[in-house]
């Protein structure tokens, strides 16, 4: 009976749970799904991480390449993020060039990198005006069950913390770069941004970490990104119903708590990998 009701009236089905302050998967309204993290899983990348938030699974691989700095920023390297939502992760996505959601996700990640100052791009400069690192950060969703943005931010941050760049010197005789693959060092991570995504039901009920089904039934989406100093880095709200100031404040305080949880998780995983080496 319940299965039939869920298919015929999905919104009413969800409302019957929300009335009781819980959700169809048994979670409370402000509860995140179990989050797991694995780092260094792609041996061919300079840094990588695999994140699962519930069923939603995102893998991030970082490839570093040498390039010439941009003319307008001679003393900086740069970071190029890309989010891929292939058909394998959900029947909603089609083969072909990146769709609107993938483009919006890539832009969101670029905004997070810039506004959170996760890294100082000056650290990627090897020789001013001549040589710098470009970090290509590719995030691919393997299973999309809602809240892809949070998973992408965690995967990116963990992969950056896992990245090791080889030592590069510029030959005094030829002026050509010489790469020493034996000597590698980690990146200096300046800030630790973490996202918390919310959905609004019936213009008033806030739920955190929505599943794909909850996303389709909601009246608005909101993602709040904060760092370890409780600084607000990005508030991403693509349309939908408006939120009161107190609801927004509620989202921000939940996001700062989430930031601490995730930073602890990343540090714990990195520490256990170091101990195992």
How would you characterize this protein structure?
With 277 residues, the protein is of the alpha+beta class. Helix content is 31%, strand content 32%. It has six helices and twelve strands. Strands 1, 2, 3, 4, 5 and 6 form a six-stranded mixed sheet that branches. The chain has a four-stranded antiparallel sheet with strand order 10-9-11-12. Strands 7-8 form a two-stranded antiparallel sheet.
Give a summary of the structure in a few sentences.
With 277 residues, this protein is an alpha+beta fold.
Protein traits:
six-stranded mixed sheet, 6 helices, 277 residues, four-stranded antiparallel sheet, 31% helix, single chain, alpha+beta, 32% strand
Write the H/E string, N to C.
Answer: HHEEEEHEEHEEEEHEEH
> What's the rounded overall pLDDT mean?
91
Overall spatial form: elongated
- Parts with pLDDT < 50 across at least 5 consecutive residues: none
Helix/strand/pairing category: alpha+beta
Give the fraction of residues assigned to helices: 25-40%
Quaternary structure: single chain
Cα Rg: 21 Å
Beta-strand percentage?
25-35%
The number of strands is 12
**Total count of helical runs of at least 4 residues:** 6
Give a quick account of the main beta sheet: strands, pairing sense, barrel closure: 6 strands, mixed
Give the termini separation.
53 Å
